[in-house]
Design goal:
With 166 residues, the chain is of the alpha/beta class. It has helices at residues 19-28, 50-66, 82-97, 116-130, 155-165; strands at 3-7, 13-18, 32-37, 44-48, 71-76, 101-107, 134-143, 146-153. A hairpin with a 5-residue loop joins strand 1 (3-7) and strand 2. It starts with a strand and ends with a helix.
Length: 166
């Protein structure tokens, strides 16, 4: 990497120069030379205070995580009562309307493993309750002692919710 494009601490382009010269300029200013675009031709380096650079990077990442849609988990059992199932479906609906994905977990214990048909019918029942707002991402899968299925919000449901707030 003999040549690099250099940007100073104020965002001004200093142009293309040898790496040694760029390092020399950074040291004279008491700052660091950081490669910000290694795949560019020539690579782009910035003259900055490394501590300040890391702080701003973390701040941006934290801000990005704030707006990230998460994953909500709803856990049910084969014996879950109809009323409880409706309650859990309501919670899942709220999460889906907010744009979150929902993971439905059917937890099986002991002899319940022998009655998979009951577990799948209960899972299908709650998926039916959510079918107006959610789309199923893949078939329900048996993972150890639980059956897991992922639901994502339908685009129409999200649009309807956002237009209702506008």
């Amino acid at each position: 990497m003999p040549q690099v494009r250099v940007i100073d601490e104020n965002g001004q382009q200093l142009g293309i120069m040898p790496t040694r010269q760029a390092l020399q300029i950074a040291r004279e200013k008491g700052l660091d030379l950081i490669e910000v675009a290694p795949n560019a031709s020539p690579p782009v380096c910035r003259i900055v205070d490394y501590g300040k650079f890391l702080y701003q990077l973390r701040k941006r990442e934290k801000e990005a995580r704030k707006h990230q849609k998460g994953l909500k988990e709803i856990r049910i059992r084969p014996q879950t009562d109809k009323h409880d199932l409706e309650f859990k479906a309501r919670n899942a609906t709220e999460a889906l309307q907010e744009g979150h994905k929902v993971r439905l977990c059917m937890i099986l214990r002991g002899r319940e493993m022998a009655h998979m048909d009951m577990a799948y019918s209960k899972l299908n029942e709650i998926m039916g309750m959510l079918s107006h707002i959610a789309q199923v991402e893949g078939e329900p899968k048996l993972q150890g002692s639980q059956i897991v299925v992922m639901l994502a919000p339908k685009r129409e449901a999200l649009k309807a919710r956002h237009s209702g707030h506008a």
